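User: Hi! I'm working on a homework problem where we have to compare a predicted structure to a textbook description. Could you give me the structure for the chain below?
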Amino acid sequence: MREESNKKSKLSWSKSLVRKWFNIKTKAQDFHADCDATQGRDGHGGEWRTSCSEREAGAAKKSRTDRSSKRSMDRIRGGKNDVVDAARLTEVQNYRIFASTWNVGGKSPPRGLNLDDWLHSSPPADIYVLGFQEIVPLNAGNVLGTEDNLPAKKWVSLVRRTLNKNPGSCCYGGYRTPSPVPDPVVEQDADFEGSSRRQDSLSYLHRRSFNLSRSLRVEGNHMLPHPRYCLVASKQMVGIFLTIWVRSEIRNDVRNLKVSCVGRGLMGYLGNKGSISISMSLHHTTFCFVCCHLTSGEKEGDELRRNSDVMEILRKTRFPQVRGASDVKSPETILEHDRIIWLGDLNYRIALSYCSAKALVEMHNWKQLLEKDQLRIERRCGRVFQGWKEGRIYFPPTYKYSFNSDRYSGVRPKEKRRTPAWCDRILWYGNGLMQLSYVRGESRFSDHRPVYSIFMAEVESIRHRRRNMGYFSSRIEVEELLPDPYSSGEMKFY
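Assistant: Happy to help. Predicted structure tokens:
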């Protein structure tokens, strides 16, 4: 048995090396997730789930909810005289998204690392999108050898523990649905496009009420709480790691999960630099989350290499089409999605000398410092991220700090000088996204500070009951909106 196990291990090891060296793309379903969101944890709160099967992944086949929705739509559209405008059958809901990027400097997290300050959001978000860079050291062994996924497991365990703290903890103050009152908007110039309701719509969030029976599970003679958040997708490429968590109540509404990786590192394609993109649908709105680590360097002209990285990521990222579902949107590229959030260590620097930049930092003169920010310059010139948006920056540069301190590197004689820069950024593209905040964390764990943003996202969903329907839909019978008698699951009414 041991010999067979060793043979399988060696075969798997050699296959992974061949895929890495020859830039063979991974399958769209090649990611980790909590396949059954209703199952409880093992008591440790940090298990590593294996990749979902094609049936469970959501990208290969539709869920019962999706099939029920399709049958309802087919029956509604079927009659010659009963054609109903699709816009009148949908409603817009608002979901809070917490998006963050953190270059952790190749350090594996200790078990007791406190993530409360970083992941704290009041009220808690519906979706957490967490992108990491350098979760392993970018040495030859990790870049050319087999993938070390132990640090990724540790980060997943820490995030799971933090998001699923017991109700009443100091971080979250018990179970809460998203607040109807949005946070103060930090980015004054960011319009909530594509919405006629704008700010008023945020005051009335349509959510399912909290159901105590759904929040508990039985283990022996004890009632234990279900995890409030579950992992829907996580993917690692060398040091880049992207993980997405959602509230357990909306797990079944997340479908069509697919992943696409683009390497831009050694030889132009290895994964020490590049991107991981995850595509998914929430109800009938498509999302794409991109986590990247672009080319480093402070020399003049390095920003052009970063521009090239962005263009190649946009060009090479491809998601397979969903088969046999004409009514399901299946974007193939990043820009074909309805809502897009791009985050990561973009590595754009400040076009100033170390001394000049340091003087502006000490004066907290962010406005003048931003005038020399390479990303801002390149965007204004139309050379990269055309049509994308970024919130206003009111926080100090996030790179580079001395170890375990609030001091920028280069102050002491033997330290390498690195001009302070906003390397870590979050941008978005598409209508229906409003940025509520754009700030940085203050953890000293790495030489980078984490950056996070909270968005309110509009999501379209199909109505499951008649509400103010007009003449053309008046002939739809009640039973047509009831659960299908042949369905194994029950229709969820909102």
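For your comparison, note the following. The chain has one domain: 37-462. The chain has a mean pLDDT of 77. Good luck with the assignment!
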